[in-house]
Design brief:
Elements (H helix, E strand, L loop, with lengths): L16 H6 L1 H12 L2 E6 L2 E6 L1 H9 L6 E2 H13 L9 H14 L2 H21 L12 E5 H18 L1 H6 L4 H9 L4 H5 L6 H27 L7 H8 L10 H32 L1 H15 L8 H5 L2 H13 L6 E5 L3 E2 L6 E2 L4 E4 L2 H4 L15 H5 L35 H18 E4 L9 E2 L6 E2 L4 E6 L3
Parallel strand pairs: 2-8
Antiparallel strand pairs: 1-2, 3-5, 4-12, 5-8, 6-7, 9-12, 10-11
Helix pairs in contact: 5-12, 6-7, 6-19, 7-13, 9-11, 11-13, 12-13, 13-16, 13-19
The structure holds protoporphyrin IX containing FE.
The site of protoporphyrin IX containing FE (HEM) has 22 residues, from helix 5, helix 13 and helix 19.
């Protein structure tokens, strides 16, 4: 049978790890010039077939369940972090139902309650954080390190909204350190060697157990007090998590699911808000246009923002959309091939045991689909509205008709993200708060940083600082 062309490499097994790992987009592009949209490369013992472009996205993300498996690709990395019985440590039909349970918590009525909570968390954070007011409410200007601030702000707002007051309170104690330990066991190194015997791995394992036990204790406590009043994901699971075949999720599984959900939204959202703030630092005109949009929608005296206000701020939402176009947090989505898989429209067959890889970020920076793709220009989305069908990117539980969209920062098909709407609420509220409170710029002489591909999500390289000034103290 015909195999796709293979990217040349000197060292067997190791393969193209360095060039792919250093800059996957450069790697994808250079090899696309040689081979076209479909080719194979070797990555540390795995044989990966890339399928680029909207067609490739569709091929990988909407492949049949009997042909490809996400859990075979992700299990070893994620299970020691999330824990057993959930996400990629269970059959796919279980994951589909777990996502449905999560989805039923992520509704508009829930989001309405989340916006004021996020506002409160942001204010509390600014006041306390040394990156912002550092306890002095009259501080008028300072230099803030975004890759310190935004991950903290993300986890405080996500835990408070998605998991409730009791869990949020734990982040003021030891919980943040434990999540740090989980992070440090969720690296490209652990993708290759999931159980590599180094301190980070042992700490990851210990932290998983402690964090999971903490969720279980909170669950027991809520039951004891019969307090399920908050609109959070934990309560939704406690009410609804019974699979179609009558099997009930255990407390341990519900606990582990919470880790998966918080981790799924943590680095992705923190990276996105950081990139957005950096671009707005470089484009003061856009930032001021966002300020005017807030005044138009909320009124001159800028009362607290609501969920409905956010829906009426197209420029703000386009700014998030544009940030995700240029900086999708996940550059490679992988599946392991379960039975020999022909690639439609080509002569190629990918054999069982190999992997297929979608890189939705590639068409997002291709001039074939986006004019001047290297320019950060949110207003392009107002013009493009009818050209790109954004809704056509798949539903959670049904296999969608097509993922042939050039814009898929949240993936497509059965593994599509459940957190998109929440991410827009969280990012929109946080960015709107910054726009109201501050003007900000990049430190003298610096531009928007280049991407850094050395962790699991695409982050801006350091320094990620801004100089902020209060609009009024
Ligand atoms: C899946 C991106 C935020 C939970 C995915 C996938 C992508 C993605 C690309 C598909 C992965 C694949 O096909 O291999 C993003 C981005 C985010 C974001 C760009 C923010 C800007 C969130 C949030 C949550 C979340 C906030 C939780 C509330 C999930 C879950 C899955 C998923 C549960 C399903 C995994 C699966 O079915 O295999 N996300 N995500 N994500 N995401 Fe997100």
């Amino acid at each position: 049978p015909n195999r796709p062309p293979v990217v040349f490499h000197w060292i067997p097994v190791f393969g193209s790890a360095v060039s792919y790992g250093m800059d996957p987009y450069k790697f994808f592009e250079e090899n696309r010039k040689k081979f076209g949209d479909v080719y194979t490369f070797v990555l540390l013992g795995r044989t990966m077939t890339v399928a680029l472009g909207p067609q490739g996205n569709d091929f990988v993300l909407n492949a049949k369940l009997s042909d490809v498996s996400a859990e075979d690709a992700y299990h070893d990395l994620t299970t020691p972090v999330f824990g057993n019985g959930v996400i990629y440590d269970c059959p796919n039909h279980r994951l589909m139902e777990q996502k449905k349970f999560a989805k039923s918590a992520l509704t508009v009525p829930a989001f309405r309650t989340y916006v004021p909570i996020i506002i409160e968390e942001v204010r509390k954070y600014w006041l306390k954080s040394p990156q912002f007011f550092g306890g002095n409410p009259n501080r008028a200007s300072a230099n803030a390190h975004l890759m310190t601030a935004m991950p903290e702000l993300t986890i405080f707002t996500a835990s408070r909204t998605l998991q409730g007051k009791d869990i949020r309170a734990k982040f003021d104690e030891s919980f943040a350190d434990l999540y740090h330990d989980l992070d440090r066991g969720f690296t490209p190194l652990h993708f290759v060697f999931p159980h590599i015997p180094i301190p980070a791995t042992f700490r990851r394992n210990a932290a998983q157990k402690k964090v999971s036990d903490t969720y279980m204790a909170v669950i027991r406590d809520r039951r004891q007090r019969s307090d399920f009043s908050e609109f959070d994901v934990i309560n939704t699971f406690l009410k609804e998590a019974i699979y179609k075949d009558g099997v009930r999720m255990t407390d341990r599984e519900i606990a582990n699911m919470q880790i998966g959900i918080l981790m799924g939204g943590q680095h992705t959202s923190a990276a996105t808000s950081t990139w957005a703030l950096l671009h707005l630092a470089a484009d003061t005109e856009l930032r001021e246009a966002l300020y005017r949009e807030q005044i138009e929608v909320c009124g001159e005296d800028l009362p607290d923002l609501t969920y409905e206000n956010l829906q009426n701020m197209p420029l703000l939402n386009y700014t998030i959309r544009e940030t995700l176009r240029m900086h999708p947090p996940l550059h490679s989505l992988m599946r392991r091939v379960r039975s020999d898989l022909a690639i439609e429209g080509t002569r190629y067959v990918v054999p069982k045991g190999h992997y297929v890889l979608a890189a939705p970020g590639v068409p997002m920076i291709d001039s074939k689909y986006f004019k001047e793709p290297a320019t950060f220009r949110p207003s392009r989305w107002a013009e493009a509205k009818n050209e790109i069908n954004l809704e056509d990117s798949g539903e959670v539980t049904t296999v969608s008709k097509g993922a042939k969209s050039p814009y898929l920062p949240f993936g497509a098909g059965r593994h599509r993200c459940v957190g998109e709407q929440f991410a827009y609420v969280q990012l929109g509220t946080i960015l709107a708060m910054f726009v109201r409170e501050f003007t900000w710029t990049l430190p003298d002489g610096s531009g928007v940083p280049k991407p850094d591909y050395s962790s699991m999500v695409t982050l801006p390289s350091e320094p990620t600082n801004i100089i902020w000034t209060r609009r009024k103290v």
